[in-house]
Amino acid sequence: MTETQTSSTAPVPGGASSDPDSGGTGARAAGEPSRWDWVDLTERYGILVLWAVVIVVFSLLRPDTFFTSSNFETIFGTQAVQLVITLGLIVSLTAGEFDLSVASVMGFGATMLAILNVNDGWPLVPAILVTLLVGLLIGSVNAFLVVRVGVSSLIVTLGMGTLLSGIGFGISHSVTIGGISPNLLTAMQTTIFGLPIAFYIGLLFVVVLWYVLGYTPLGRHLLFVGEGRQVARLAGLRVDSMRALALITTALICTIAGIMQAGVVGAADPGGGPPYLLPAFAGAFLGQTVINPGRFSPWGVFVATYFLVTGITGLQLLGGAGWVQDVFYGGALVIAVTLAQLVARRRRA
Question: Strand, helix or coil at 120?
């Protein structure tokens, strides 16, 4: 069947509005009870209010350590890599594909760059370009196996993540590689208004993805594919191409996150990727319940990522042990997925 492009104003499968600011609810009927306005506002901005409450509570409990400019600079300045990984993840999630390799791709990208730049003596720019090409190759392999061969994305990306972790340990001889080019460290660690450039790179990704996913035909087509492949095919969308593009884009963004990680830390740890996986999914699904409920939103990811790290930081300053982070992220993921399901049911009603 000949694959054609559809108008950017095509209706979303399932009857949802294609307006990115509508939250997928469609036009509200005249005379509808105002209580739904409050429900909608609570869904969109409830986490923002809760975030403010969390800040106030911890500021009162630990005013000398939590409510300080240095603490907030740390909170916002240290999560740029996590933010970018999560943004990469929502691209594939929007298309209906689960990519469990995102954290390992990030870790492998950092390791590859360090090996080329430090161990092999490559200049920084060629090392970055080759690392990006490797990221594209990883995404292409994922896309081929998932889209062309028909293997579940969960299985393919789980295996790919484990494979990359093993290769990373092998080529690095299981040691952390330091001595990365000072130019990359300067590019990532130089601060503007108290925040490192890495934070602004993450913010740039938020803005770009917000525009692409919400205001371009490409973004709307990805959404249509994620909501219903068969309906999208009947509408003439290039479903397989969209799925492949999403997986490749996710891998490329996470490779960029790996390059950022190498510059932020100044070294590459071959085992440093997997710990980012759970926070990425927690941030992605929690972000689905805020601002634009029911959709994976870049701004939702931004809010969710920093809301979670604010809570974890506060608990740790109160004396919580290291396990607090796992409990917080794990609980947040379960709650976020549950809330996302409840929101979806209410909006379909």
Answer: coil
pLDDT at position 39: 66
Identify the bridge partners of residue 267 per DSSP, sorted by sequence position: 178
In the block, residue with structure tokens 């340990």: 169
pTM of the model: 0.85
Evaluate whether 177 touches 110 at the Cβ level (below 8 Å): no
DSSP 212-277: HHHHSHHHHHHHHHHH-HHHHHHTT--HHHHHHHHHHHHHHHHHHHHHHHHHHHSEE-TTSSGGGH
**Distance from chain centroid for Cα 344:** 21
Return the CATH architecture of domain 44-344: Orthogonal Bundle (1.10)
Whether the Cβ atoms of residue 96 and residue 225 lie closer than 8 Å to each other: yes
Distance CA 282, CA 329 (A): 6
CA distance 155 to 97: 11
Q: Within a 10 A sphere around the Cβ of 150, how many other Cβ atoms?
A: 7
3-state helix, strand, coil in the chain (%, to 5): 70, 0, 25
In tens, the pLDDT along 144-175 reads 999 999 999 999 999 999 999 999 999 999 99
